């Protein structure tokens, strides 16, 4: 339990005094106080200026990942679909599998980061199918490694989702 002395102040709080800056030469007290007042005024004006400059940029509504246009989305979605198809159909013995999987992960991560927050795209069938397929592919390679072959059933489902997404893109969905 708190003591009553902590709750009830016994003396009046003293106003904070300005700490004068250290003068380089010896001056009178009036000069030091006027210098501190000028410094305080200058600082306030500087803060007001900076606040005025930065406020519009901080308060303006901008989205972190802006999709430029519908054509850009369609082009990038087709690129991702082609990259997924070529990567998951590579043979296990191919020496470029690990590099292709790393490239696919980079492309898919950037695509998802760019379009995941676009509210206009979230309801599209193409976005849903591509996102689902990318999730399945990346989950497989994260769990089993970049050289592990994708099981036939999972591969068929991923390729079907890519085909469905491509058809939806052609229809503008």
UniProtKB/TrEMBL annotation:
The keyword Hydrolase does not apply. Keywords: Membrane, Thylakoid. It is found in: Membrane; Thylakoid. GO terms for cellular component: chloroplast thylakoid lumen; photosystem II. One of its GO terms (biological process) is photosystem II repair. Residues 1-29 are annotated as: Disordered. This is Uncharacterized protein. It comes from Tetracentron sinense.
């Amino acid at each position: 339990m708190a003591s009553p002395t902590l709750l009830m102040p016994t003396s009046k709080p003293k106003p904070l005094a300005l700490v004068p800056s250290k003068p380089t030469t010896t001056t009178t007290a009036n000069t030091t106080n006027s210098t501190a007042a000028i410094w305080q005024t200058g600082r306030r004006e500087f803060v007001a200026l900076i606040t005025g400059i930065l406020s519009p940029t901080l308060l303006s509504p901008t989205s972190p990942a802006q999709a430029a246009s519908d054509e850009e989305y369609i082009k990038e979605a087709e690129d991702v679909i082609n990259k997924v198809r070529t990567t998951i159909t590579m043979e296990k013995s191919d020496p470029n599998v690990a590099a292709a999987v790393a490239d696919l992960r980079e492309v898919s991560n950037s695509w998802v980061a760019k379009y995941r927050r676009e509210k206009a795209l979230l309801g599209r069938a193409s976005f849903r199918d591509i996102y689902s397929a990318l999730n399945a592919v990346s989950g497989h390679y994260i769990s089993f490694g970049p050289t592990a072959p994708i099981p036939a059933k999972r591969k068929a489902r991923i390729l079907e989702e890519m085909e469905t997404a491509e058809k939806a893109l052609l229809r503008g969905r």
